[in-house]
Amino acid sequence: MEFANKEYFLLLLLLIPYILWYFLYRRHSEPTILMSDTFAYQYAPKSWRIRIINLPMVLRCITYALVVIILARPQTHNAWDKRSVEGIDIMLAMDVSTSMLAEDLRPNRIEAAKSVAAEFIAGRPNDNIGLTIFAGEAFTQCPMTTDHASLLNLLQNVRTDIAASGLIQDGTAVGMGLANAVSRLKNSKAKSKVVILLTDGSNNMGDLSPMTAAQIAKSMGIRVYTIGVGTNKVAPYPMPVAGGVQYVNMPVEIDTNTLREIAATTDGNFYRATNNAELKKIYKDIDKLEKTRMNVTKFSKKYEAYEPFALAAIICLLLEIVLRTTVLRRIP
Asked: Strands, E, within the chain: which ranges?
């Protein structure tokens, strides 16, 4: 929190003479009763009224201090934050075809992939990361950004039913998914540019072959890490039937040769993930990449933050008035 008018804090110095006046002079000017002997009252217990006799003065001082804080105009931080960080540019290309609902990974392939990707993003706060999703078609779910909170929110919204509901064609357009991710990196000036391509099938849709997309990536200096996710033989797949779900064993058809060639062409690596633990280990190789310095600019919106202080001042003032006119009222 910042204060627009810090000079108003000098008014707090006025509390010092007021407190001295209260204890040294004002109390001596209050009405008193002369008694010949006070011995009888020496050990008399003090009532709760006596114990809080100075509370109105304390509340008055607190109210004054809060008013001074309000005059100083407390504000939230409002500035362009420019800094240089070390990071790389990464595009995640994720298969969202309906076959990603297979449950050979827990709870299923798509949720396991999202969980590991979220951990990866959270662990690399300085990287410029974006997200492409593809089935029979491909599109950018989130362009590259260092605003990882927004990226994680968009990642959590990724679902396979966009293909099942007909929003995009079902299938596996590996070439289109890779080409979409590569297009987001074409203007990058980072030393390390990476695409992490995750799929559980083989290319059977799209107008662009995976190897053509790989050649484009190579020409732009982009390394592609390919991940084939799924078991080696068959996987349990939930099929909706009347009144419930029936599981059928679906053959796993991952074109490992093409994925391996894509990685080799772009100086990347090919991985097979048959369970959740293996999928988590795959991303460790990204940490070995050369990082590059980039400028990051952030802006936070300003607003006046005096409301809590004003509310507290009003409460203290009202409490002081109530005490002074009721239980601590003095006569005369």
From this structure: 2-3, 74-75, 80-87, 89-95, 128-134, 138-145, 193-199, 222-229, 234-241, 244-251, 270-273, 292-299
Q: Which two tokens stand for residue 308?
A: 């809590």
* 19: amino acid identity, one letter: I
326 CB-near residues (< 8 Å, 6+ apart)? none
Cα(103)–Cα(82) distance, integer angstroms: 45
pLDDT tens-place values along the chain, 332 residues long: 778 888 989 999 999 998 888 888 766 666 666 666 666 666 667 777 777 878 888 999 999 999 999 998 888 765 555 656 667 899 999 999 999 999 999 899 999 999 999 999 998 888 899 999 999 999 999 999 989 999 999 999 999 888 777 788 889 999 999 999 999 999 888 888 999 999 998 999 999 999 999 999 999 999 999 999 998 888 999 988 887 889 999 888 899 999 999 999 999 999 999 999 999 888 777 767 666 665 656 666 667 888 899 999 999 999 999 988 887 776 65
- How many angstroms separate the CA atoms of 175 and 172, rounded? 9
Which residue shows structure tokens 């997309």? 213
For residue 294, the SS3 value is strand
Cβ-Cβ contacts under 8 Å for 315 (sequence gap 6 or more): none
